[in-house]
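Data card: per-record layout.
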Amino acid sequence: MNDNQDNITAETEAHDMVNHPPHYTNGPDLGKLECIDITSLMPFTLGNAFKYVWRAGKKGDKAQAIEDLKKAEFYLDVWDEQRSIHQWLYPEESRQMVRLLLRRIPYRVPGDELETTRRMILFDIMNGYAGVAQEVIYRMRSFFDDRS
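The structure for this 148-residue chain is written out next.
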């Protein structure tokens, strides 16, 4: 195990891995906002895409992060393919509630390009912009590739 994995393991042991796993919380700057607070207001496919982007790089190693991003892309593909069916599942009222929650998350994180990229994707998913989100996910993958 490398140092990064040791840190993740030590960190997760100190958290409630069932009810409040650290990879679904987003740090002290967001208070008690967790991923489920947002995804519970979204249709299944968009919620899953959102969840996998939210946790990418926070759970497991780089390979896990890339797998999470691929899963997000899968769910965005499903959303896009079945947009006419899913669109009614995500009415404007739900989108507005999600937007209110996301206002608690700063869009940009100065000095942290990975987190800023993650948040760009989350905002795109929240708005149902599957194609745009997938383009940015491709860019986010570069943070986890083996060149680093």
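Known properties of this structure: The chain has one domain: 3-141. The helical segments are 3-13, 35-39, 44-55, 62-81, 83-86, 92-102, 113-126, 130-141.

See the next section for split statistics.
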